[in-house]
Amino acid sequence: SFPKPSISLHPSRRVTLGAATAVRCQGSYWNAQYQLYKDGNPTAMGFAEPAGHVAEFPFPSVSQADAGSYHCRFRNKWYRPTWSHPSDPVELVVAGEGPGSDPSLPRPSISLSPTGVTPPGANVTIRCQGPGRDVRFFLHQGGDLNQPLPMEPPGDEAEFHIRPAGRQHGGNYSCSYRLRSEPFISSAPSDPVELVVADYTWSNIVRLALSSGVLLAVVLILAEAAH
């Protein structure tokens, strides 16, 4: 049989209600026929015969019913009995932002411990809290909603630990959650919190002050020499 095709979601795998997206399936041959399947349904939900080797299955206005895991397969147009192996799955996660969002999925809250400026090497806990007990939380860094980090344990509150914190961990964080009974339906993200990692110890402050003083002295010497 043919090798399995690749599958991807464009523009992203996390789509807001009513937005447009498309599943793309790419095989290794031209003049092929493609089928798209949604997990849990043995019947193909889409069929395409692209001119090239990439088939596109559009979703012009995503609804919660479209959420789920998809895979595709292809076969040679002129040798129909043999289908390729199925692709790896791609997840279409429908987020709760926008008109028509589910009122039962309000935004979660997020907090940092400790608060304020965090020195390098300290332990940081990011805590996310939602409205129900049977949910799973996901952490998003820097506004990237497509690469979430799972937070444990499932429940009405979850924590993500950074041990130890470094400057690379600084930035904005938000979280979202999904019902365990609906793993592809997501809440809107929480408001962001900012983690600031900086060395504000007295020794570092003195070092900065001394370096600033040396720089000021050099500027004054150069200014005097110019006159």
TrEMBL record:
Transmembrane segments: none annotated. Signal peptide: none annotated. One of its GO terms (biological process) is immune response-regulating signaling pathway. Residues 10-95, 113-198 form the Immunoglobulin domain. Gene3D superfamilies: Immunoglobulins. Residues 16-79, 119-182 form the Immunoglobulin subtype domain. PANTHER family: MHC CLASS I NK CELL RECEPTOR, OSTEOCLAST-ASSOCIATED IMMUNOGLOBULIN-LIKE RECEPTOR. This is Ig-like domain-containing protein. It comes from Pelodiscus sinensis (Chinese softshell turtle).
